[in-house]
Specification:
- The protein is an alpha/beta fold.
- The chain has a domain of 234 residues: Spore Coat Polysaccharide Biosynthesis Protein SpsA, Chain A (Alpha-Beta Complex).
- Helix content is 50%, strand content 10%.
- It has 17 helices and 9 strands.
- The strands form 2 sheets. A 7-stranded mixed β-sheet has the order 3-2-1-4-7-6-8. A two-stranded antiparallel ribbon has the order 5-9.
- Helix 10 packs parallel to helix 12, helix 11 runs antiparallel to helix 12 and helix 12 crosses helix 13.
- The longest helix is centred in the first third of the chain and has 38 residues.
- It is elongated and about 125 Å long.
Length: 441
């Protein structure tokens, strides 16, 4: 028993001693390593430091470039067309068709470069996004074509449209007021069997439907439809331009983006469907039934008696008319968002001056008296009454000219919106003859 106790005590003492023995050996091993390191030459440490620095530099500046198994293919924008013929590019298509000068390419591409490198890029992009938002929506795009087909065709042959009219409304709903309603009234007063499509996001709403309800109740065919740009622009040069716009690769410029989209929208709507486009400040005086493929001159040169400027507030064209395609092409290739009218009236004037006399473009240019009996500088004269005998004679003569020669009158809302209609004025006479509901305009 005593031997067993001694053996146990000795075993316990050996167990406690073992950690101290291990620590003692480790301490001797550490001293041994340090003695070896201190005996090494300094050149070894210099080499080690150099290797560490080299590795660090490599880790910092190394860039991994992924390997492509196939070469990168350039993006080629094929020229959209109503036919299935494919051409090399939209730029070469423009040069081939019009023999246009090389500066068309510069005009088409400089805005893209200017937009990307301008110090005002963020401000302009915010402006373009705000303008795009007023017309852009994803929810109703697939319904646009179906709604228009159903509207144009009607439920029976008797309800189908005899004449198709289009308007665009790019502003908030509250802006669609008495002046715009008068335009709609004048349209149905002279074309009771016509159909009117107001392409607008704001008007395609419950409140918009309420505004148009009096016309529908009286048997007139009018509808407001939110635009489907993808469908309307498809297979034209507008398609690629609009895609670049959405990607932020088109400089929207200082002019209202909505206004420029309206300029393009009217061209594509007529190209797609055919019919008549009018601005919302056009008052129609008589039927357009004998007009076909027609543009109105805004001004004429007194010496040559030829037009000096055309306008796009009234456009009458057949479906798929080649001149419309030229207008759309010109818009996409020469778009400039910083010049008012460049993508609208001036565009129409540029293209018509180039294609006049060429085979395959059948259209007519009517004199200013047809749609623009006074230009924007003289619109005030139609709102005032007679002040003296001389002015009274002028009013009578001007009213007779409008009655005999004019199909419509452009009221130039930008200049005349705040003008009051004076009793006895030309506009007062026009309203009384063209209104349906005659609600105190």
């Amino acid at each position: 028993m005593e031997n067993h106790i001694k053996h146990h005590h000795h075993h316990h003492h050996s167990f406690l001693y073992f950690p101290f023995f291990l620590l003692h050996k480790l301490h001797h091993f550490k001293k041994y390593l340090l003695s070896i390191l201190f005996n090494l030459p300094t050149s070894f440490f210099a080499l080690l430091l150099l290797l560490l620095l080299s590795y660090n530099a490599f880790a910092i500046f190394y860039i991994h470039i992924p390997h492509h198994h196939s070469p990168h293919k350039p993006i080629i924008l094929s020229p959209p067309s109503h036919t299935k013929t494919k051409l090399s590019s939209s730029v070469f298509y423009a040069l081939k068709q019009d023999n246009s000068p090389i500066n068309i390419i510069n005009k088409a591409h400089f805005p893209l470069l200017h937009n990307k490198f301008s110090i005002h890029k963020s401000k302009r992009l915010k402006k373009y996004k705000r303008g795009l938002k007023t017309l852009h929506s994803e929810t109703k795009f697939s319904l646009f074509q179906k709604r228009l087909d159903a509207f144009f065709n009607g439920n029976s042959s008797s309800s189908s449209c005899k004449i198709r009219f289009f308007m665009t409304w790019i502003s908030p709903l509250k802006g669609f007021g008495k002046r715009e309603l008068l335009s709609v009234e004048s349209l149905f007063k002279s074309h009771p069997k016509a159909c009117l499509v107001i392409v607008s996001k704001s008007m395609d709403s419950k409140k918009g439907t309420q505004i148009l309800r009096p016309f529908v109740k009286n048997g007139f065919r009018v509808i407001a439809v939110e635009p489907d740009f993808n469908y309307i622009f498809k297979n034209t040069h507008a398609e690629s331009w609009f895609n670049r716009l959405k990607q932020g690769n088109v400089n929207p410029g200082e002019v209202s983006l909505g206004q420029n989209l309206s300029n393009l929208l009217r061209l594509c709507l007529l190209y797609k469907f055919g019919g008549i486009y009018i601005d919302a400040d056009i008052i129609i005086l008589k039927s357009f039934s004998n007009l076909r493929n027609t543009i109105g001159a805004q001004n004429i040169d007194i010496k040559t008696k030829k037009w000096s400027r055309l306008n796009n507030a009234v456009l009458i064209f057949d479906k798929n008319h080649p001149l419309l395609l030229k207008f759309i092409e010109e818009f996409a290739l020469t778009f400039d968002g910083n010049k008012w009218g460049h993508n609208g009236p001036y565009l129409i004037s540029r293209v018509v001056s180039r294609v006049s006399g060429r085979v395959g473009f059948n259209f007519s240019v009517v004199p200013p008296s047809a749609f623009y009996p006074v230009d924007w500088k003289g619109i005030r004269s139609l709102f005032i009454g007679s002040s003296d005998e001389v002015h009274s004679k002028w009013l009578v003569k001007k009213m007779e000219q409008i009655r005999d020669e004019s199909y419509a009158v452009h009221l130039w809302n930008r200049q005349s919106r705040k003008l009051k209609v004076v009793k006895g004025s030309i506009v007062d006479s026009i309203i009384s003859n063209c209104c349906i509901f005659c609600n105190n305009y």
